[in-house]
Amino acid sequence: MSDLVVQGTTLTAEGPEPIEIGIQDGRFVEPDGSVDRRFEDGYLLPAAIDAHVHFREPGDTHKEDIQTGTASAAYGGVGFACQMPNTDPAIADAEAYRRVANRVEASAHVDVGTWAGVGPEMECFELGDRATGYKLYSGPTTGDLLLDDPEDWIEAVERAAETDRPLAVHAEDPRILTEARRGEEDPQAPAAHARMRPPEAEVRVLERLAPRAASTGARLHAAHVSDPRTVEVMNEHGLTCEVTPHHVFLDSKDVERMGTRAKVNPPIRSPHTRPKLWDAFRRGDIPVFASDHAPHTLDEKDQPFHEAPSGLPGVETIYPLALARALAGNIHIERVLDACCRAPAELLDVPLGRIEPGHWANLVHVPEEPTRIGKRTMHTRCGWTPYEDHQGLFPEDLMVRGDWVLEDGDLVAKPGQGQFVGGPAWD
Ligand code: NCD
Ligand code: ZN
Asked: Which atom of ligand 1 lies at the shortest distance from residue 295's CA?
């Protein structure tokens, strides 16, 4: 007998279809016994996975911490979030990694993984297959995790190839950034940020690393791609990449309107590039949708453009925005479920992303109609969203490994209900 049987309607390539699934010991099983919970309206869908978030703990918990970050994730239907290591101090060795795992077990509302940062000594690789994944920063951004020597990039690829874990790269060649900065006549102008971080900087890093990854078997993954040429390079070498909501839903016209709130690395690109990225995403050439949730407070953002920090919040809106686009007919629902659920599950090797026996029992119940985000309360500690004008289909209920996290729009999971999810060998 399963512990629980849930019934409702799901969305498939063929349209809405009835679904009934059992849940036992945190996993989906064949339904067995009577229905305990029937959802008369709305849709039951897999919960999302966000493979790229910044929860700022330790170091910058006035912006976010694991508890507030996972609350925000829950309200957006994300049952598993994988955080980046550019905290203060950085999560760059086994000890820091274990510390953060303990913090997750004490305070998270949903499951959390962590990309271990590649530092100059490369201690992170001592984690081997226990790391959720590895993260290489080839160019400067928030935090001080930076490896700017191409020889070190190659070494990181080779070290990652000795493990089964993915190596995500923040691709911006610092030499190209320096060159662009030198040629810039008005470095304090808002538009200068994008000129000083040109897409060539991204493309160049991956052109260098992708062939080496393909020949060594390293699972190289391009984080937050901002140019279609990067997508081509990754596709050519059979490697994965992700795009963010801000790179497909916003362009440089929005940056003019929103100012520093839309300042981010890599920068939001032109109205010419944005639709090309969106098309590559809709075709599936960009397999993964990831938010790069990078909370900064409005006080911090309220500075001259060249001084304001880069990054914008997004873990709470990524799945609702994508689902609303699917309901509006802008993208196929199957592509949204692939990019928000199945592909990130594959990237991170977790049995998630499908409402099918054997998978962890993570699901959302969403309404049939989206709402305008407007001034909707956001649960990230930074308290704002760049998507006020957009439609979002927000979940009313969220289940993670068989337990309710969100019920009727309220967070019911206790801090610590979330688990730390490392690589397959994590103990
Ligand atoms: C991120 C942050 O603030 O941590 N900022 C950003 O502009 N994306 C760091 C990063 O992912 O580059
Ligand atoms: Zn990031």
From this structure: 3
Output the six-digit token pair for 101.
């795992």
Concatenate the DSSP letters of all residues of 321-387 into one string.
HHHHHHHTTSS-HHHHHIIIIIHHHHHHT-S-SS-STTSB--EEEE-SS-EE-TT----STT---TT
In this structure, are residues 342 and 353 in contact, taking their beta carbons and an 8 Å threshold?
yes
Q: Tell me the pTM.
A: 0.98
Among all bound ligands, the one having the nearest atom to the CA of 172 is 1
Task: Give the CATH superfamily of 47-351.
Answer: Metal-dependent hydrolases (3.20.20.140)
Measured N-to-C along each axis, helices 66-75 and 94-107 cross at an angle, to the nearest 10 degrees, of 60
Strands 78-83 and 48-53, by their bridges, are parallel
The answer to whether residue 292 is catalytic is yes
For residue 312, the Cα-to-chain-centroid distance in whole angstroms is 12
Residues paired with residue 420 on neighbouring β-strands, in sequence order: 112
Write down the H helix ranges in 170-222: 174-183, 192-196, 199-216
Domain edges within the chain: 47-351
Q: Which of 111, 254, 292, 397 is catalytic?
A: 292
- pLDDT (tens digit, 9 = 90+) per residue, 216-264? 999 999 999 999 999 999 999 999 999 999 999 999 999 999 999 999 9
Average pLDDT along the chain: 96
CA-based end-to-end distance of the chain: 29
Pocket test for ligand 1, best of 52, 54, 65, 243 (most atoms within 8 A of CB): 54
* Alpha carbon of 224 to ligand 2 centroid (Å): 8
| Residue 427 pLDDT > 60 | no
Q: How many CB atoms lie within 10 A of CB 68?
A: 23
CA dist 232 and 207 (Å) reads: 10
Q: Which residues line ligand 1 (CB under 6 A)?
A: 54, 86, 141-142, 170, 264-265, 292, 294, 310-311
352-379 pLDDT per residue, tens: 999 999 999 999 999 999 999 998 899 9
Would the pLDDT of 296 be above 60?
yes
Q: How far is the CA of 355 from the centre of ligand 1 (A)?
A: 32
Residues with CB under 5 A from ligand 2 (ion): 292
Burial of 148 (0-12, 13-18, 19+ CB in 10 A): middle
